């Protein structure tokens, strides 16, 4: 009952996705770069905008997966970047500010499937979300990007429910990236996630500076998994402090 008194709401009946189109229909190179980052709703601060601009300049990511991305009046900083299209899916909606997941890319996405978690987190009573987007490579192969923010502060059975949602999204995808904030703050949660990804044939991107990842109780929370691709480089931008999570950069090749 008290949820009605809170300054936000969750519209689980109308899965509103804000979309910006981009001209490029295909990913033209056999190589591409992914940026994964939980931005902690800081993406309108001057310092964050500066950091993000530097990342775009130095790494030129082809795909961007943000968690806890905040919009103002349904607008995004990516609206001013002509090279990027995006889909934005929120799990917290306020009068002029929403926050959720954004999947952005330099090529047009062919399909999308946003999904709320079955359960909500305690106290604030908000669900978590996963966002499936699919793209076409130059050779007409499909590339799937799944961005997720996993449920927190709940029993393992509720975490397993979202794991099963991800399993369905990942199933039968030949070229796949599964990325996001998985809230794997315990050995049990990490075991559940690893069991699912290994069963689906996904590999885990290894970072040399893994200790720079956002962690809780000595367990890293952010991960990048892949299938049908090969990582060439991986880096955690540990010097950036405009979020409590660190940006993760992975360069992939489709030629394996």
Order of helices and strands: EEHEEEEEEHEHEEEEEE
General form: globular
Radius of gyration: 17 Å
Mean pLDDT: 88
For this structure, what is the CATH class?
A: Alpha Beta
User: Termini, distance in Å?
Assistant: 53 Å
CATH architect. name:
4-Layer Sandwich
Q: Count the strands?
A: 15
The biggest sheet, with number of strands, parallel, antiparallel or mixed sense and barrel status, is:
7 strands, mixed
What is the domain total for the residues?
Answer: 1
Strand order of the largest sheet: 1-4-5-3-2-15-14
What is the number of helices? 3
CATH superfamily: Endonuclease/exonuclease/phosphatase
Helix/strand structural class: alpha+beta
Strand coverage percent: 35-45%
Ranges where pLDDT stays below 50 over 5 or more residues in a row are: 1-10
Helical percentage: 10-25%
Oligomer: single chain
What is the CATH fold-level name? Answer: Deoxyribonuclease I, Chain A
Please, could you describe this protein's structure?
The chain is an alpha+beta fold and 256 residues long. It has one domain: Endonuclease/exonuclease/phosphatase (Deoxyribonuclease I, Chain A). The protein is 16% helix and 39% strand. It is built from three helices and 15 strands. Strands 1-4-5-3-2-15-14 form a seven-stranded mixed β-sheet, with no helix packed on it. A six-stranded mixed β-sheet has the order 6-7-8-9-13-10, covered by helices on one side. The chain has a two-stranded antiparallel ribbon with strand order 11-12. A hairpin with a 6-residue loop joins β6 and β7 (127-136). The protein is globular.
């Amino acid at each position: 009952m008290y949820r009605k008194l809170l300054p936000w709401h969750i519209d689980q009946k109308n899965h509103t996705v804000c979309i910006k189109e981009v001209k490029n229909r295909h990913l033209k190179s056999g190589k591409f770069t992914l940026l994964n980052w939980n931005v902690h709703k800081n993406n309108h601060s001057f310092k964050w905008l500066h950091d993000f601009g530097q990342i775009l300049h130095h790494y030129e990511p082809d795909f961007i997966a943000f968690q806890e991305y905040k919009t103002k009046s349904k607008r995004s900083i990516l609206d001013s970047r002509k090279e990027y299209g995006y889909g934005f899916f929120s799990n917290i909606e306020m009068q002029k500010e929403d926050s959720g997941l954004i999947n952005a890319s330099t090529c047009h996405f062919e399909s999308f499937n946003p999904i709320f978690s079955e359960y909500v987190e305690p106290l604030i009573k908000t669900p978590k979300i996963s966002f499936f987007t699919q793209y076409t490579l130059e050779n007409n192969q499909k590339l799937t990007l799944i961005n997720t923010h996993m449920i927190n502060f709940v029993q393992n059975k509720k975490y397993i429910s979202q794991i099963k949602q991800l399993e369905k999204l990942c199933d039968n995808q030949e070229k796949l990236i599964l990325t996001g904030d998985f809230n794997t703050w315990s050995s049990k949660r990490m075991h559940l996630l690893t069991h699912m990804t290994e069963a689906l044939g996904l590999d885990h991107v290894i970072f040399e500076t893994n200790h720079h990842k956002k962690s809780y109780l000595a367990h890293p929370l952010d991960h990048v998994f892949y299938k049908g691709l090969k990582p060439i480089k991986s880096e955690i931008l540990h010097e950036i402090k405009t979020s409590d999570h660190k940006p993760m950069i992975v360069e992939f090749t489709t030629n394996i």
